[in-house]
């Protein structure tokens, strides 16, 4: 009874899948891809900044980002925002198989601590993500101005885990 419509739907889906495969072919060796990475411009007086982007798990196994590094900055932390203030996230960024995780102002972010020099609009900054598997993923973020979300970075209630 439904053979004809189903067949049509199936062939349309197959065409979409084929198109998707062709597009992804170039990056099929990367377990984790980083889309639209950017870093917030800042001056040294700001003391800190943050990097954002969308992390996509291209594998059929869960991926956890456990750390991030950059030659440009001495200290990077994986942060989350809870009740308006940020903190280091327990256990890193978990990205389920085949899913994406978006780092964005007001949410998850790569926190840049001890900012050594200004980050200016248009700067290209290299980052490396370390996965729980031991693999690393490099990406380059472009700096851009972003005014929103500054409040949370200037808060005095940041818990760094040190004693009172
Ligand atoms: Cu933070």
C-alpha end-to-end distance:
71 Å
Number of structural units classed as domains: 2
Q: Quick one: biggest sheet?
A: 10 strands, mixed
Q: CATH architecture of the largest domain, please?
A: Sandwich
Beta-strand share of residues:
35-45%
Bound small molecules, by name, code or SMILES, are: copper (II) ion
Question: Can you describe this structure?
Answer:
The chain has 164 residues and is an alpha+beta fold. Strand 1 (32-40) and strand 2 (49-57) form a beta hairpin. The chain is built from two helices and ten strands, in the order H-E-E-E-E-E-E-E-E-E-E-H. The chain has helices spanning 3-24, 150-154; strands spanning 32-40, 49-57, 63-69, 75-82, 85-88, 93-95, 100-103, 109-113, 124-131, 136-144. Bound molecules: copper (II) ion. Copper (II) ion (CU) is lined by residues 50, 79, 86, 109, 111.
Features:
164 residues; alpha+beta; Immunoglobulin-like; 2 domains; ten-stranded mixed β-sheet; 10 strands; 16% helix; globular; disordered C terminus; binds copper (II) ion
Summarize the structure.
With 164 residues, the chain is an alpha+beta fold. The chain is built from two helices and ten strands.
SSE order and pairing:
Layout: H1 3-24, E1 32-40, E2 49-57, E3 63-69, E4 75-82, E5 85-88, E6 93-95, E7 100-103, E8 109-113, E9 124-131, E10 136-144, H2 150-154
Parallel strand pairs: 1-10
Antiparallel strand pairs: 1-2, 2-7, 2-8, 3-6, 3-9, 4-5, 4-8, 9-10
């Amino acid at each position: 009874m439904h053979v004809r419509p189903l067949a049509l739907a199936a062939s349309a889906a197959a065409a979409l899948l084929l198109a998707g495969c062709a597009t992804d072919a170039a990056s099929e060796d990367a377990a984790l891809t980083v889309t639209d990475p950017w870093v917030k411009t800042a001056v040294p007086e700001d003391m800190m900044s943050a990097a954002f982007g969308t992390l996509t798990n291209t594998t059929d196994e869960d991926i956890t980002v456990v750390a991030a590094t950059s030659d440009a900055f001495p200290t990077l932390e994986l942060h989350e925002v809870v009740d308006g203030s940020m903190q280091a996230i327990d256990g890193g960024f978990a990205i389920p198989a085949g899913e994406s995780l978006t780092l964005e102002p007001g949410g998850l972010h790569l926190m840049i601590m001890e900012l050594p020099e200004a980050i200016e609009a248009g700067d290209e900054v290299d980052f490396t993500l370390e996965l729980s598997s031991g693999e690393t993923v490099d990406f380059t973020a472009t700096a851009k101005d972003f005014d929103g979300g500054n409040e949370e970075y200037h808060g005095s209630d940041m818990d760094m885990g040190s004693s009172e």
